[in-house]
Amino acid sequence: MQAQLRIRRYNPEKDSAGYWGEYTLNDVNSNDSVLDLLHRVKWEIDGTLSLRRSCAHGVCGSDAMRINGANMLACKTLVSRLGDGDSIKIQIEPILGLKVIKDLIVDMEPFMDHYKSVMPYFINDDPPPEDGRERLQSQEDRARFDDTTKCILCAACTTSCPSFWANDKYVGPAAVVNAHRFIFDSRDKAPEKRLAVVGDTFGVWRCRTNFNCTNACPREIEITKAIAEVKNVLYTGEI
Amino acid sequence: MPKVHTFDAVIVGAGGAGLMAALYASRSANVAVLSKLYPTRSHTGAAQGGIGAALANMEEDNWEWHSYDTVKGSDYLADQDAVDVLTQEAIKTVVELEHMGLPFDRFPNGRISQRRFGGHTNKETGKPVMRACHAADRTGHMILQTLYQQCIKNEVNFFDEFHVVDLIRVGDTVRGVVAIEIATGEFHIFHSKAVMFATGGWGRVWEVTSNAHSLTGDGPAIALRRGIPLQDMEFFQFHPTGIYKLGILITEGVRGEGGVLINSEGERFMAKEEYAPHIKDLASRDVVSRAIYLEVKAGRGINGQKYVHLDVTPETVNHYYELDGEDRRIDREYIEAKLPDIADFTRTYLGVDPVKEPMPVQPTAHYGMGGIPTDVNGRVLIDAQKTVLPGFYAAGEVACVSVHGANRLGTNSLTDLVVFGKLAGKNMAEYCQEAELLPLPDGAADEVMAEFERIRNNNGGVKAHEVRRKMQESMTENVSVFRTKETMDKAIADLKELREAYQKVSIEDKGKVFNSDLLEAWELGCLLDTAQVTAVSGLARPESRGAHARDDYPDRDDENWLMHTLYFKEGDGYRLDYKPVTMGRYEPKPRVY
Fold this sequence. Notes:
Chain A is an alpha+beta fold. Chain A is 31% helix and 15% strand.
């Protein structure tokens, strides 16, 4: 089939404002990924097109983009998911709410700062077991935070969230997901520190449960549910 | 003029090895970690099935059995003293990862869950043993996340999206690295007492690969250009089960959970006498990849194509468990819980639901057993006499310790990363206590800056991606699961032409900010160098061992070739040298699975 790509372009060294670049690709297969198409544009048509990508199968989190109006990973979005027939139109823009550096590349630092603000690391200063082995954890306790361990920090969720668009001081869904991963880990000893961050003015109460984040997550994490579980702990005081 | 930063030590690469080294080294030294990606994008995160350690959480096991399996898996090319370090340290280090918070799956008794994996056995019964510690099928992801989290906690200095392009070496000392800040295009010099390369692999030399686009062999190529040899580069692992045409990895854990390989005649072919009648689908990777290749060659690929089926549907798995006299049975929920990412990949990319139907798979370029020669403390060795280059370290896939020899066992790459990342990080920190910061030479960045200017201003009209595609096609055709003198000669001739074409590569992006056009062109030069070393080293080894399988020399030659290859770049040419394998408790014997 033929694909007509409309890609948001901006080069800070040349352009005073962004514009739409239009590119036509022939011989596109329905099982090509959007990343495959972007590579074809870059390699065959315009070498200046810039984007981040690495693993190309949805686990490294480099290539979150807004594709036909929704956040997705370019490498995990096949043409068949976007339409069929002899011709297809695909619009690709950078994720929203973070400053565009060049073309599809945004400044990830504010996103990473929010992530770091929830203390996304294991805290347990008790001495480990005397036998020199692992701490024990039941399968039930391990299951409580399984979903939120899947996060790859692609920012698809946070940059699809209207509350984040409205105020970028909101820590955003990805940071809450990572707080959840530790708050619900029976081995961790510092849930109250993280709850203080996510319970603050720019924490979970900014969430209006519109499920954009859950829809956007390429790892299919039930983000809105995780946020609700954190809200519930803040409300009841019980984990 | 490049901006100069000064540190005790610089670590290049922020995957499992780089981050583990950073955690240890930064306890006593001032360390910078440079990565061309954000650390959590590193390819350690794509590792799936497990990390090998003889924890014996479910059944009897010990580190000596793990050593034996690793040596046998290596086709006796691993250094046995180093293997013992790997397997003993594995146990401590996996427990340490758990103490760092890594969310391993658990057995009902609350201990770390373990599963079977290829080539890991009970030495007494010869039967598969549960040794692969795992977190579902995203074990690498959890290792990468956990180590990065701990680095944040310990305030490690990161320079994200800094692309290292040269090593500053003066005689037998190293003085730092040259890097490009990708966001600005500016050159920086990191002046240091010590440098560690933890840059990962070079799977993008081949067409079908499980490796990320960023795995372009930068580390080995830079080392080579700075007079450091590369060891055992002819041994590159083709993982048996990549998704057909795409190469995306399908973990060996699928077979560890009971999955089987099936040909067009419906046979579980790994059980055949000529392949692996004892442990069948859980034979080591070189054996299984060759079997798939031979089945396809004999016309038993599915629908006459170059793939076979990997079947983990409960009906099939339980059928073979019953035939094999095993009590175990699985159901769909178990597969969904233990292999969620695999199910996601095949549903997304193939529209195949693995709990209901088999997955089409073919061998995929996966892992370099060779690399920069080191000792067990990560110190780089620059000749056959094992002379240390003081202050230069390597760890992870880019290093060749050698614990993997001619073929790596599944799960041992993650073990390697954390064990040798830790030992190298510790040793480097100790080195920094003693060593002085030697002055930078004049114009330390000039040579590599000139090379970038050459690429930027070149008007030769050749496109980098065309050269890359031709290299990948030639290496896939000629230096793959099987090779011969004829095919390797062809690859070397092709590479000569492609290296000439490379001199004419021109780019369209002349800017500075995020110029991936320029960086991809430079990376292509690294790929061409690593491809060249692979083909030349392979041609010079007239035997079949592990992943180096030659139709023209089908037998292993222990009399002459229990030797590690060393490839030195000399001007535009090269020199080969050899050093003996360190033997130990396990004498070479025929390898039967």
